[in-house]
Task: structure prediction
Amino acid sequence: DAGVIQSPRHEVTEMGQEVTLRCKPISGHDYLFWYRQTMMRGLELLIYFNNNVPIDDSGMPEDRFSAKMPNASFSTLKIQPSEPRDSAVYFCASSPGGGKPQHFGDGTRLSIL
Amino acid sequence: SQQGEEDPQALSIQEGENATMNCSYKTSINNLQWYRQNSGRGLVHLILIRSNEREKHSGRLRVTLDTSKKSSSLLITASRAADTASYFCATDYNAGNMLTFGGGTRLMVKP
Result:
């Protein structure tokens, strides 16, 4: 089992640029979660999907953020335009549901200059 | 906010000592989970305790849950330098699959 795979691991870009983060969940997991982690705010849930359908996006900070899950094996989180305050580590996690634990990827460390 | 809160925020101990971390939460839960995060890595699930359970063990880990006080504790016995990490509690409060994470405890185990 390869685990949850995120890419890129690091991203440095200039303010105003579009940023796309990618995630491949564990095969067979029906739930996919996007989190953001910062020193100030800790780990925040941004959005989660069930069977590729967005269920709760109340954590998405602004309209600049969007997430898609076109199929069961791929999801993207996009920020357009990016701002310095978006700098954080973004994690993707998946779970089989039923209250079972979540499995996290190793995150994308995003720096917006 | 229904976020759990860990206490202490940071803990430094010597190898071989026990480490105890506490978590408090605000609403009724279905289960509470503990996760570990090594520097630069994602969170890894350690143990899950259901609301009708009071204690659970896994290797050197012992978790307790007191629903009347809305609190949980994670005990790591005979700590090792490799236990150095951040530890987070997470609550499942809506019988769904969302988790709310606390701020974490940074544990340092000195060799």
About this structure: Chain B is about 0% helix and 55% strand. The longest strand of chain B covers residues 43-50. The mean pLDDT of chain B is 92. Chain B touches chain A at residues 3, 30-31, 33, 40-45, 48, 88, 92, 95, 97-104 (CB under 8 Å).
